[in-house]
Structure formats: C-alpha cells, structure tokens
Write a structure and sequence with these properties.
Length: about 110
C-alpha cells in the first residue's frame, strides 16, 4: 500500500488523485507546513477503519464489564485473591492424586 504526500501542485489534480484512490491501494497524506494534518483514503480503507473502530469499542465494553466487579478491589487484593484460588485448586488436586496423574498423562500423551 503506497503512501503519497500531497503537495501544492497535487491540488490541481484532485480528480486524478481520486481516480488513483479508487483504482489502487493507496493513501494520500495532506501536509501543512510539513506536518501531516489529514489523509485521503479509499472507500475500502474507510470501511476497514470503521470496522476497526467498532471492534475496538466492543473490546473496551467487554473489558469494562470484566473490570466492573473488581472496582472496589486494589490490584494487590486481586493478586492475593487469585493466589488464594490457585492454592485452593492445587490443594484439591493433591487430594485426588489419581486424577492429577491422569491429567498430567493426558497432557503429555505422545499419541495426540
């Protein structure tokens, strides 16, 4: 995908640039005083950007829902809670050694 800076002489050829955008995978960066300030992109690129924005917003909403039950807990408290649960699970596994052995064997079975 090419990246074409737009300079003053290119402004006279806007229709050529639009044609280039619609036929090729290109992006045109508009600069002001040598700094990028805007871009022209194809409709396909715009659709992808909109989709990416939507997905990012969905991921943020999911993270917010996952974070909500723990807003009153400090990171240290959460770490202690997790360590406690891991210890409980390990202790439970130790109570049933045959089950622990069969799980370990299943994870290392060369037949898989």
């Amino acid at each position: 995908m090419s990246h074409t800076p737009l300079n003053v002489s290119s402004r006279d050829h806007l229709s050529r640039l639009v044609d280039q955008l619609s036929r090729q995978r290109t992006r045109i960066v508009i600069e002001q005083d040598g700094e990028p300030v805007a871009a022209l992109v194809s409709n396909e690129d715009l659709r992808r950007l909109i989709q990416l924005d939507y997905e990012r917003e969905e991921h943020q909403r999911l993270l917010d829902r996952l974070r909500a039950p723990f807003t009153d807990r400090t990171p240290d408290q959460i770490e202690r809670d997790v360590a406690s649960v891991i210890a409980e699970v390990r202790a439970e596994r130790e109570k049933t050694p045959a089950l622990s052995r069969s799980r370990r064997q299943a994870n290392t079975d060369p037949g898989d």
